[in-house]
Amino acid sequence: MTAPKSRSLGALLNPQSNSPLKLLTAEAHRLCQLRGQIRRQLPPALTSHCLGGELEAGTLVIYMDSAATAMPVRYQQQQLLQRLAAAGLRCTAVKVKVLPEPPLLPGPKSSPRTLPDGVGQILENTAAGLEDGPLSRSLRRLARNRAPRR
């Protein structure tokens, strides 16, 4: 089995080649231009919420970042179709979809916070000077839970 021959980046992006990287780059550029066309036709308050779009068989699918920003676009479909046609984008229907936020990955576990030396004692003394109530209980709990671990 022979190792695949490595090619330079210039060769991969050569306009005469049909490399997968060149095709992906061209598609990304086309989608970026389409998103720009869509954003120019949206009301200014909604432009930053448009995540992109795709045009398939005369139907323009617009991706918005939330249901709250998708709803006004749905209500303005006819006006949007007219503005897009005037801008040279031929489509017969508009669909608006919401792209959900990707789930957040759990971050590194944070180390428990501790109080500087002496602060725990100050909290205990302050709690002792108060009548027994929610504030004094909270101060004691804070002093106990945030004490430096030895």
Write structural notes for this entry.
The chain has 150 residues and is of the alpha+beta class. The protein has 2 domains: 18-98, GMP Synthetase, Chain A, domain 3, CATH 3.30.300.20; 113-150, no CATH class. It is 45% helix and 13% strand. The protein has 6 helices and 3 strands; from the N terminus they run H-H-E-E-H-H-E-H-H. It has helices at 9-12, 20-41, 67-75, 77-86, 119-129, 134-145; strands at residues 50-56, 59-64, 93-98. A 3-stranded mixed sheet has the order 1-2-3, covered by helices on one side. Strand 1 (50-56) and strand 2 form a beta hairpin. It is elongated and about 80 Å long. 10% of the residues are buried. The model has no long low-confidence stretch (mean pLDDT 84).
Distance between the termini: 60 Å
How many domains? The number is 2
What would you say the CATH architecture of the largest domain is? 2-Layer Sandwich
Widest sheet, order of strands:
1-2-3
Radius of gyration: 29 Å
Q: Sketch the major β-sheet.
A: 3 strands, mixed
Element-level helix/strand string: HHEEHHEHH
Q: What is the arithmetic mean of pLDDT?
A: 84
Q: What is CATH's topology name of the largest domain?
A: GMP Synthetase, Chain A, domain 3
> Could you name the ranges where pLDDT drops below 50 across 5 or more consecutive residues?
none
